[in-house]
Every structure is written in C-alpha cells, then in structure tokens.
Amino acid sequence: MAVALSACGRKEAPAPAPRPVVAMPAKADERLPAWTLPGEVQARYSTPLSFRVGGKIIERQVRLGDSVTPGQIVAKLDPADATKNAAAAKAQLSAAQHQLDYARQQLDRDRAQARENLIAANQLEQTRNAYASALAQRDQAAQQAALSADQLKYTTLQADHAGVITAEQADTGQNVAAGTPVYQLAWSGDIDAICDVPESVLAGLAVGQPANVTLGPLPGKTFTAILREIAPAADPQSRTYRVKLTLESPSPDVRLGMTANISFDNRGSDSQTTYTVPATALFHDGKEPAVWVVKPQEDTLELRRVQVLRYDARTVTLAGGVKAGERLVWQGVHTVSAGEKVRAVPPLHPEDFAS
Fold first, then answer.
1. Based on the domain organization, do 145 and 194 belong to the same domain?
2. How far apart are the C-alpha atoms of 302 and 307, rounded to whole Å?
3. Beta bridge partners of 302
4. DSSP letter at 51?
5. 0.70 exceeded by the pTM?
6. Are 344 and 21 in contact (CB under 8 A)?
C-alpha cells in the first residue's frame, strides 16, 4: 500500500517546449535571379607595335589617341647602320655574281676543250666544282643582301591594322631592342566588355549567352552583348575567371576603357528546379553544404545535404536536395541539432532576408 501511494505521488517531468526557429517554406525559382558584375570596355584585339630590329628612335609620327590606317608609318629608327650593312651586302652580291660569271665562262671553255680531248677529265671536274662553289656563294650573297634590305626596311615602323593608339611606351631618342613595344594599338572593329567572375557564378555561364551592358559615362543606355569566351583557368591571385563579351551594335560614343556593369540573365535549364534562400540558411554536413529541414509531421529537425548552384552576396541558390514547400531554417542554424523539436516562426524582419 505504501509503495502504491508513493508511486501515485510522483509526477512526470513536463516535456521541454519546442524551440522557436525562423523557418520558411522553400519556393521554386521561376527563373534564376540576374547578377551584375563590374567590367571594362576593351578592343577585341590589341597588339603592341615594335621594331623588328634594334636601334635609336629618331622620329615618332603619331601620338596617344591618334587613329592609324594599315601601312601608315608611325615611327622610324636611325637607318645609318642598316644602310651600310645593306650596301656591303649588295657589294658582296655583285662580287659573287662576277665570280659566278667567270666560273660559267671557264666551264664552257673546258667543256669545249674536253670534247676535243684537249684537257684531262679531272681538270673538267675541278672546273665544275669551282662553278658549283661560285653558284652557292652567289646564292648566299643574294640571301644576305635580301636580309640586309629587309633590316633596312624594318627601321621604319608601320601599323599593320587600322585602329587607335592607346599607349606610348618609348620616346624619341631612346635606344630600343628588337621587339620592345613602342605603341599599343587597339584594332578597329569588334568591341568587348570584359569582367572577372567568381567560380560560384561560372556554372551558370555558357558561350553564346546574352547579357546586358550599361556604361557609367552613358547613363540610360543599355547594350546587348554575347558571351564569346570563358577563361579555361582561374587567375592564380584572385581565383576568378576572365570572361569576354562582344558588344552588339555599339554606338560611336562607346569609348575604350569605359567602366561597365554586366548583367547576366541566367534562366538555367528548363528541367532544373532551383531554390534561392538566405545565405544564413546554409550549414554544413562534414565538408558538404547542408540545410536544416523541419519535418512536416513531427516538427523535428533533419540535416540534409544540398547542391549549391551559386553563391551571391546575401543568398544562395540550391539546385538539389530540397523540395517545394519544405520548411527550411533560415536563422540560427548553428544553435540547433538533429531531431530537436522546434516551432517554426516567420522572420521578425522579413526585409533582412530580401534577396
């Protein structure tokens, strides 16, 4: 009887109240939100102009910002040494030609005498060898004369394409080596918008994808661009990938070097469903990204791995691991544990989670 009475006197401890957590249902994206990256306007092709021989610059005929045409002379080197070398090579060619003419005449005479058996056979062979040697020396002198003439021509620097001078890298009176840039030439024609994208954005880009480009100095104007090139490797310092887009029908007021804002409208694949949630909802399961899911019947937490398509400043876009309508914990993901009983509440300030 005493045991029974003591048992009735004990009361079970009340269950702990469910922990309130900020959780909201996952909603599938109608389309992936666009993102904007800073960039710069550049010519599609830009090459340095340099002399093919070394020497002292005695004249520059164009300046920064000047437009040039193909074949236009832009700078000159002192031609004195090249002129002397060309004259010496021409004289050597003349001497070699004279030796060849003499050897040919001697060969003709020896052949005639050999037919009459007036000279020995070995003498004819020696004459033939002398002619072959003279011919080779003449050909060598001809090539040397042509090379010297080219080097004299190379003391004049010409623009190989139409374009605009965007940099001056050597001045009059300066001694330059062969290949030292004197000017930087931006070719006329296609204009690119160039930007560096982080690896989180790279998965959503593809060659041929359209983009909108706005320029800081031209407010109110939007240009269409087509992505034409994605760098195959990341920059070792910034860990970003260089992306080049070609502007379609740029107006004449688009100038090289203008700052640009490049907006990628990434709609993704029709078969891929994505969910954009606040960045504060992202947790980890080991080394893999994960989110806390509130089970619908039990109101307990489940840690589930997810696939992140891209990271933005305040949001992450999930491409797998989540279904529409499932409640995801948006805040306090580091203070909860698996299987914990929770009570889902909306965010106190919804604007803090606006994408």
1. no
2. 16
3. 293
4. -
5. no
6. yes
